[in-house]
Design goal:
Blueprint lengths: L8 E3 L1 H4 E5 L13 E7 L2 H6 L3 E2 L4 E3 L1 H5 L9 E6 L1 E8 L9 E6 L6 H17 L11 H4 L4 E3 L2 H41 L11 E2 L6 E2 L3 E4 H4 E3 L11 E4 L15 E3 L5 E3 L4 E4 L4 H4 L2 E3 L10 E3 L3 E6 L4 H9 L1 H9 L19 E4 L2 H40 L5 H5 L1
Parallel strand pairs: 4-7, 14-19
Antiparallel strand pairs: 1-9, 2-8, 3-5, 6-7, 6-8, 10-11, 12-21, 13-20, 14-15, 16-19, 17-18, 17-20
Helix pairs in contact: 6-11
Length: about 400
């Protein structure tokens, strides 16, 4: 213990606040009658995906679902104890969560919830080490309550949390900008190419087609005529190259994270401008899709999971292809084609053979690309900024919690 830590005391989590598990054990496939209402239902994946504060959720409860669960209030710290071990985030809105998540509500005179969240981050590896199970890793509430938290007086907790949370505020601001930029690009795609409300559409007559009435000058084509699925890319076996496992893809964004480096060349191959589309359940249903723009130049190559379908524009634009891959209609067509053993079903690529796309004129595609390309590029730059902020915060965190860095020094 350092001189700065002489008044820090070891405590258990339940000495610092109220601790309890979520109450629901049900999943949508087991009892769909509980879902589809007004109450956010956070799952372990939502907590893992959050940076600091969690507000985005993948399911909602109705009144029946709420009756068999519990509505936790904003400020509750959520800690995952199954599937994803030791991930944590603070509720930004009221919500429910299952028994694979523990809720912590601090005593106001003993703990700052932000400080406890950061302390949990330093214990994640230790928590994973005691959670290995025969079928699924599980920390259990009892094991969680065995961990010691070396806790300073409340004013010191607040100062440490304030320094670290400044980084997280910048991270969350960048994440909000990424969401806004991507939402705007997808909305423009839908407006121009799904609803046909492109600039000057009022003066363009509609003609009947296999897709209904479409603007004059547009063509109905099959997906393989417009998109190259799994294009041939040569990746040398020798030397290390960027490698993407399935976990690199996001369920709701084009961002690709946690890129690895591996030798060999077995798996999918891709280059900048390609869209990566998950072919396997439940990754496809969850929305895992990525846009490749992290490679240094147009000739650089990378490889990844065999469970990616690589999509490259033939007659469209890379940005159009990505937005198409995110559309409900395209994904629904792929999901309907899935076959195989339960839990390991995969998309049948022949499902794209008859999928029809309304090919816009070249000048409109170029205009769309000129508008959204800067957004795609800014999203990548913001992602790099987030990664830098996280590295700085993660280097500072253990040093603050161990007293190696004086608070006045860290604040500067």
């Amino acid at each position: 213990m350092t001189l700065q830590q002489t008044d820090w005391k070891p405590c258990k989590l339940d000495e610092l606040g109220t601790v309890g598990r979520g109450k629901s054990k049900h999943r949508p496939r087991n009892d769909p009658s509980l879902y589809g209402g007004d109450y956010p239902f956070f799952q372990t994946g939502d907590i893992k995906a959050a940076n600091f504060r969690v507000t985005e959720y993948s399911q909602t409860y109705n009144e029946k679902g709420l009756q068999q669960s519990k509505l936790w209030q904003p400020g509750t710290l959520c800690i995952t104890i199954a599937a994803h071990i030791g991930d944590s985030a603070i509720l930004g809105i009221p919500g429910c969560f299952p028994d694979s998540i523990v809720g912590f509500v601090p005593h106001a005179d003993k703990a700052d919830v932000r400080f406890i969240k950061y302390y949990i981050d330093t214990l994640k590896v230790s928590m994973e080490g005691v959670s290995h199970g025969a079928t699924q890793d599980n920390l259990s509430l009892d094991k969680l309550l065995t961990f010691d938290f070396l806790v300073p007086p409340l004013p010191v907790q607040r100062r440490i949390a304030g320094i670290l949370s400044a980084y997280d505020e910048l991270i969350e601001n960048s994440q909000r900008r990424i969401r806004l930029l991507e939402d705007m690009a997808r909305a423009l795609y839908r407006e121009w190419f799904v609803h046909f409300r492109f600039p000057g559409h009022e003066s363009v007559p509609r003609l009947p087609s296999a897709l209904g009435d479409i603007p004059q000058g547009w063509e109905v084509k099959t997906a393989p005529e417009c998109i190259d699925f799994n294009p041939r890319v040569t990746v040398p076996r020798e030397g290390e190259k960027p490698f993407l496992p399935m976990g690199c893809l996001s369920t709701g964004s084009m961002i690709i994270t946690d890129i690895e480096s591996r030798t060999g060349n077995s798996g999918s191959k891709f280059q900048n401008g390609d869209t990566l589309f998950a072919r396997i359940t439940p990754c496809l249903e969850n929305g895992k899709t990525g846009f490749v723009q992290f490679l240094p130049d147009a000739s650089a190559v990378a490889f990844g999971s065999t469970e990616f379908i690589v999509m490259r524009s033939r007659t469209l634009t890379p940005e159009f292809v990505y937005c198409l891959a995110r559309s409900d209609e395209f994904r629904g067509n792929a999901i309907k084609s899935m076959s195989g053993a339960t839990g390991r079903q995969r998309v049948q690529e022949k499902c794209f053979d008859g999928y029809l796309i309304c090919q816009p004129p070249k000048n409109l595609l170029e205009r769309f690309a000129a508008i959204v390309q800067p957004s795609f590029q800014l999203i990548h730059k913001l992602h790099l900024r987030i990664e830098n902020l996280r590295r700085t915060r993660d280097l500072l965190l253990p040093r603050l919690l161990s007293g190696q860095v004086a608070l006045a020094e860290a604040a500067n």
